[in-house]
Amino acid sequence: MYDLKHTRDSAAQKLLVTFLTLTGLMLVGRIYFFLDFLPTNFWGHNSVAEVFSVFLSAFRFDISVASGLIFFPAVGTLLLFPFSINNGRIWQNILTFFCQTILYATLLSIVVSHYYYYYYNVHFNVFFWEFWENWENSKLVIWSVYDELPILEITLTLLGLVVMTHYLSLILRLWLSPLLSKYYDRKIILIMLPFLLLVGMRGTFDSLPLTMQRYREQVSAVAHLNSIHGNPYYELYFSWHDRSETSDTNAIKKMLKKSTNEIPQWYDLLANMDQRRGFKGTDESNYLLEYQLPDLSKKYLKQKPKHIVFIFMESQSAWLADYKDAQFQQSIRKNLNKLQKQGLSFTNYFAAGSGTISNIMRINLSIPVKRYFRLHNTAEIFKSFPDTFPRIMARQGYLPRYFYGGSLSWHRLYHILPNMGFQQVFGESAIKNVSKNRFGAHDGDLFELVHQKLMQAKQPTFNFIMTLSNHPPYGVPESFISPITYENTPQELKNKILDKDNFNGRMRSLAYADQALGNYMQKAQESRYFKETLFVLTSDHSHDMNLKWESEEFYQQKKIPLIFYSPNLLKITATTYENQGSHLDLPATLLSLISTSPAKLHSWGRSLFEAPSNKMLFSFHINCLDDVCRTKEQTYVLQKDQYLTLCKETWCSDKSKQLSAIENAFWHSGYNYLFQYRIDGKTTPTFKKQD
User: What's the pLDDT score for residue 276?
Assistant: First the structure.
């Protein structure tokens, strides 16, 4: 029979062992993360003292988590003591089960967090929660993860942590038991423990507890040290916080209601930042930004295109063109480089959103919303907006059509695309008798469908084509042989590679995607529609390819291509533009080419063919004003349109504050338009001839 004293003493020991084991596990996980993702030449630019300081700061988060996890069992044990415990074994079993559960949950979270970072190059974010909300999407992610991640390594790591946890707990029990018996009264310890845990949970003596301190990501000027500062539990907490904050429509409506007096100021500020943009409206429910399109059609085009082929390439990064090795470029970008050299291209172009689906929304709506807001989960709003990209193209005389090699059930495309204004939508079901990868039809087969539909077209068409072969797990046709591998990769790029097999898979899919594009363009050139078609090529987003990147390369790393190509229609060819832009600017850029009369466009974007009065960029990854850029974590100075250096000067700080105000106006005015138009049911035609 377990008496009260035995239960009390055993509980005190068990809780202390669990606390120490938890903090030890999180320390081990942080050390492993630090070493596994250590950038090259790290020790040449950073001191041991700074590393130690960050680890010491991070330890507060570990203490906070460990304190929070054992607080309630500690309180429960304390509350039971005034009462008779007739069967102490029951409580011991409950406490043992709880302590073991949180220990193994912790080591699992450490492993999952580590390889989540390995896969996405970020800690837990809102997309982690999105995974659990749609099983169809989740299955695709699971298969992608299974093919791309080192499953054997993950399994061995997890098993190693299980063994380490077991023996660490055992050693601590053997060490603590005689120590506590000899020097301390475990009753006192147990009574004091809940109060100590409360202090530990708070994590700091500052006015704000750790849970309120978003500056946790900026403890150092070194990006790698910032990345090790949190722990899995806190990253999950903040990612949930971000999800709730940016995706909760009710919260956004409340924010707009509280900010009613600021709304006209947002629009007025944005209007004054661009000589072609105006602000009109009588109250917050009908405020509009009107962008005066530059009349560029006569300058750039011989005649208005009969067809527009818009190719939305999967994970095509602009930085791949920086490696000048002839064999490398010939292998993975032969055809894309050819189109770029013969067309009009942009060297400072970025994704507006975080991923494929978010950028489909941002291109077709041209409405800015904050980082993680999921437009695709509010598809009903499109019924209230006449000025989506496909609807505008329809008013220009084009039949808007969407082509995708995968399933239209992905993110409910079957519902969203028609609501957006696409009059014809083709998914994998339209591509018959072809081999497919896990996500859908290969790019070559998708382009064949596009070609056949264009050959049959009896009216002008706007064709939005979304490729997928360059998406993990890189299921290209088995007969395709990759011309580039780790062995014949340029040395400069080879030095960045972390996983040879993963790199080889990506090179193979890039090479196939380029070949499929080239084959299609060759077939198109031999067709009757080619001479009357304007081709526009961009990417859904960039991809860092799990390489080692330095923080100063962030700007270069996130660029994506934008190319306009038509040797028979374009008057100007073989020209590059340095104007900064994102997906939000694409509709205005295209319309400035094809519109044959002066027009205004309701849009937060602008034509990239014309240099703005103020050099600004708004994208998911980075925002810039002149040469000052802000990422999520830091403020930088942009050097030679390529590299970032940390902002330290007073003028830079002042410019950053100005950028912050413009950012606020940019994102929040987008929300205002989005929700006011949805709430009030008002629609205002915003693409019209100039009076």
Answer: 92
What gap in Å lies between CA 610 and CA 621, rounded to an integer?
A: 23
Residues of the chain with pLDDT under 70: 1-9, 80-89, 126, 130-149, 172-193, 203-221, 242-248, 371-372, 376-384, 633, 677-691
Phi, psi of 47 (to 5 degrees): -95, 155
The closest alpha carbon to 74, from 212, 200, 203, belongs to 200
Reported pTM: 0.77
The C-alpha angle with vertex 648 and arms to 644 and 651, in degrees rounded to 5, equals 100
One-letter amino acid for residue 518 of the chain: G
Distance set, CA 168 to CA 13, 66, 161, 175, 243 (Å)? 14, 16, 10, 11, 36
Residue 263 lies in a domain: no
Q: In total, how many domains does the chain have?
A: 2
Other residues' Cβ atoms within 10 Å of the Cβ of residue 450 = 19
Do 77 and 161 reside in the same domain of the chain? yes
Residue type, 334: K
Phi, psi of 439 (to 5 degrees): -90, -20
The pairing of beta strand 424-426 with beta strand 399-404:
parallel
Per DSSP, the residues of 264-294 read HHHHHHHHHT-TTEEEE-SSTTS-EEEEE--
Kindly give, in sequence order, each residue whose CB lies less than 8 Å from that of residue 53, ignoring residues fewer than 6 positions away. Answer: none
* Residue 492: predicted pLDDT: 92
CB 343 within 8 A of CB 573: yes
From CA 335, how far away is CA 52, in angstroms rounded? 49
Please, what is the average pLDDT of the chain?
Answer: 83
- Give the count of beta carbons closer than 10 Å to the beta carbon of residue 239: 19
Residues 142 and 278 both lie in one domain:
no
Based on the fold, state whether residues 220 and 308 are members of the same structural domain: no
Query: Nearest to residue 547, comparing CAs of 118, 123, 114?
Result: 118
| Whole-number Å distance between alpha carbons of 432 and 440 | 11
Going by C-alpha positions, the residue among 480, 546, 553 that lies closest to residue 513 is 480
Domain end among 212, 247, 282: 247
Question: What distances in angstroms separate CA 9 from CA 14, 99, 472, 514, one per listed residue?
Answer: 9, 16, 53, 68
Largest interatomic CA distance in the chain: 96
Which structural domain, as residue segments, surrounds residue 98?
Answer: 4-247
Final residue in a domain of this structure, among 213, 247, 281 = 247
pLDDT in tens, 391-406: 999 999 999 999 999 8
pLDDT in tens, 125-137: 767 776 666 566 6
